[in-house]
Structures are given as structure tokens and as C-alpha cells.
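[#protein-structures] MJ: dropping DUF4102 domain-containing protein here for a structure pass
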Amino acid sequence: MPKVVVEMGALQVKRLGHGTVKKPGGKNEVGAPCTALHAVGGVSGLYLYCRPPGENQISGARSWILRTMVGARRIDLGLGGFPEVTLAQARDKAREIKEKIRFEGYDPIAARRAARSALIAEQTRQKTFEDVARAYYQKKCFEFSGAQAKKQSRRLEQYLFEYCGPVIGKLLMADLEARHVIQVIEPIWFTRHSTAERIRAVIETVCDLVEGEGILKNNRNPARWKNNLDRHLPKPETVHTEEHQPTVGYKNLPRFWDLLLARDTIPAKALAFQILTAARPGEVRLTPSCLVRKTGAHRRQGCLASATPAEWCDFRESSGALPILGFAILCLLVGAIMVNSHFVLKLSLAFGRVLSKIIGLVAFSDV
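AK: finished. C-alpha cells for DUF4102 domain-containing protein:
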């Protein structure tokens, strides 16, 4: 017959505590504190689990455990801590669970796992557009590199939090629909179409991040253009006509070159330098002359090798040598290496705008 446990009262349970090691041979010495499991009676399998006190503690933690059979498996089910859960409450909980196991085939462990899984899934569905956009923004800021990284980060921040934020920032991803995306981009769809299209693409990318989680309504990206937004907004080609910058035809190139060399200005000479070296405006601007290597080997190779660090130019991305007409000819042509000058080309930050004006004046006024 099973052992009958005497039903304890509340005062007796309150006095229960951890035990001590009785037999030698274990990890702890005899008399050392150890955990104890006390049967309190009233409901079979109901125990008070007592732990030894930790450092700077007077007494250890105590909690209720129901030890029972579920099918062919024995489980230990926690019912809460003591004294937060009283003796009477623990007995009531234990009786209720044992009755459900016996008459309904209830599995408390499986039920808890299902409830926890449902809670996690619901928390995932509570993500707002701003939550996902913030994570995407941080990821892209880490990936941006080069001289334009700061500018790219600022532009993405503007798209996500200045254009999208006020309209859909607080909206749950599960509630986001095509009509909300239209509310963001429609005000500028006709006046600033390129910006509107980039914003739409950014929203689509943010939604793609959670598309596999089953959060989006009907599992469809609300910012997708084909068979979605194209039904509500005019086609891009009917709204925006792309205009290319004018170019110099190859037949007019010799005349353009003569007119360019005839202009005795630093920006004009810098443009000539760019044409010969295929350099970018940011690469030509403010290159310290002390960092340009002018060794005999470079002169013999007929090239200019740049030793300029990253903060000055991007020549470091090249193979290390730029084929040109020869170092001496280049110096005579550009005329920018002054005797007392610290920089190869002393240009302002508006260098790009100056070059555009030169190209326009030379190519399309004089040719």
C-alpha cells in the first residue's frame, strides 16, 4: 500500500526548510546543506521543494511541486513559489489539475508549451513598422562604406522616419496594407517621383524582412508594385520623363579639348586631369603634393602613382598606377603643382558645380 502522508497545517509548512547531507560519498560532506522535498499531504503528490540559502541569504527559496502521472510518464509540475502561493491555494490547484488529467486526458506540460509558443507568436505580430524599420536602418548603416556612407545613412533615415514614420510608423506590420503605402507616396508621386519610387522600394524591403514570418496580411507585401500598387497609381513612365545630361560627341572632342586647354583656370586644368586619369572629382580635390610619389621609376613608367590616404581620395582602390601621357607632360598640362603650395589642386568644395559650368560653357557655347 502507498504510504499515507499526514496532512500538514499552514504553520507546520511554514517551518519546513532545506535539509542536510546524511550519508557520505556524495559531492558534499556530511552535514552540508542540501535541497529537500517535503510531502505536505491533503493531495497525493504535492510537495514543498526547499533550497539551501545562497550567499548573503537567511533562508533559501521554496516552491510547490505536483508529482503525478500523465499517461505513461511521470512529471514534476511547478505550482508557484511559497509563501506567494499559500498551502490552501496549492492544494486547490493540485486537485484541479489531477482531475483534468484523470477525466479529460489533460497534459499540463504540453498545454504550457503551447501557451508559451502562442505568446511568442503574438509578440512577433505586435511589431510595428517603426520597429522593423529601425532594425533595417541599423543593419544598413553598418553596411554603408566609403565617402558616401554618411550621406546614404542620412537619406535612408529621411525616407524611413521622416516620410514613412508620421504615416505608418506606429502601425502594426500585421495591419499594413497597400492603402497605407499609397498614403505615404501619393503626395509626392507627381512632383517628386524619383523620391517617391525610392521610398516605395525601401518600404518593400522593410516588409520583405518579415514576409517569411507570416505577419503580413494575406502574406503579401503591401509595397509591391506589380499587381498591387500599379492598380492605384499612374505608371512611372507616364509621370516622370528621365532627362540625360548633354554630352560631347566624339567629332567635337578635339575642338572641346583645345577650348578646355585655352582656359587658364585651376578647375579647367583639373577637368583636363580628370579626362586623362579617369579620376572622380572627389579624387582630384585637395590631394597633398607631399603624398604624390615622383620617383625615377614612376617617370620611366610614364605614370602617376598615388599614395594619398583614404580621407583624401579613392585612388587606393586602383592598381597603384594611372596610365597618362607622362609625369612631366601632366605637370606642364595641369600646372597645379606650385612651388610653395601644399596641395596638388587647390579647389573649393564646389568643384563639381564649377566643372559642370566649364563643360557647359566650353562644349555647348564655343563648339
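MJ: nice. Strands lie at 19-20, 33-34, 36-39, 46-50, 62-70, 73-82, 303-304, 322-323.
AK: one more thing. The chain has three domains: 10-118, 129-239, 253-365.
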